[in-house]
Amino acid sequence: MGNITDYERVIRLHKIDELNGEGKTDGQISEELGMSIMAVKRSQGYLKNLKIANLTPVELAEKRMELWLRLDKAEIEAVALFDRYKTPTTCKICGGSGHDRKNKEAPCYNCRGEGEIDKATKAVLFHKQWVDVIREKAKIYGFDSVKSGNTVNINQLYTSDTIPEKYSTRVAEKIRSAIIEDHEKKVQDA
């Protein structure tokens, strides 16, 4: 058996964790998932280490960067699809006239006489996904918990050995907006 992808490994770990929750033994898990008993035992060890992992600020920053990069890729894809669907396209059947080619009195069956194909619902879907990615990025830096009248502890996200600075909600919102705006410019310029 060859190497498996990271995606497949994560899926396996989730399945093993579910089966552990059902009270299955390593042998039963091995049989059910078609994995060798040694692969199941390695996965069990990995799951055990995940439960007791105490990440250092450097390891936490690396994980945050990894998540950021994955979210970046998802955002770029959502933006590209949003851009693709936000503008109606000329109907290819009627050439934009809105009329049936054979019967000029009848409307085109494809665009219903509009002359354009509007995919606004798809654009809205991808715009929502784009905004969702931005929200997930904001969570990485703790901007998801900003409430009026409260302060946000910005530095606790970077290192634990620095004296944290407190920012008002207004300032935190400005920082959040600046990060989002800067990122949107980078994505649009790419």
* Number of DSSP helical runs: 6
Give the radius of gyration.
Answer: 25 Å
Give the oligomer, counting copies of the same chain as homo and different chains as hetero: single chain
Relative helix content = 55-70%
Q: Give the strand line-up of the largest sheet.
A: 1-2
Helix/strand-derived category reads mainly alpha
The pLDDT mean sits at: 76
How many domains is the backbone divided into?
2
SSE sequence, one letter per element? HHHHEEHEEH
- Give the terminus-to-terminus CA distance: 40 Å
Q: Can you characterise this structure?
A:
Mean pLDDT is about 75; it is low at about 155-165. This protein has 2 domains: about 5-50; about 55-85 and about 120-190, no CATH class. A two-stranded antiparallel sheet has the order 1-2. A two-stranded antiparallel ribbon has the order 3-4. It has helices at about 5-20, 25-35, 35-50, 55-85, 120-140, 170-190; strands at about 90, 115, 150-155, 165-170. It is mainly α and about 190 residues long.
Features:
two-stranded antiparallel sheet; mainly alpha; 2 domains; 190 residues; single chain
Task: Give a quick rundown of the structure.
Helices cover 58% and strands 5% of the residues.
Please give the structural blueprint.
Elements lengths: L5 H16 L4 H8 L3 H16 L4 H29 L3 E2 L25 E2 L2 H21 L10 E3 L12 E3 H21 L1
Antiparallel strand pairs: 1-2, 3-4
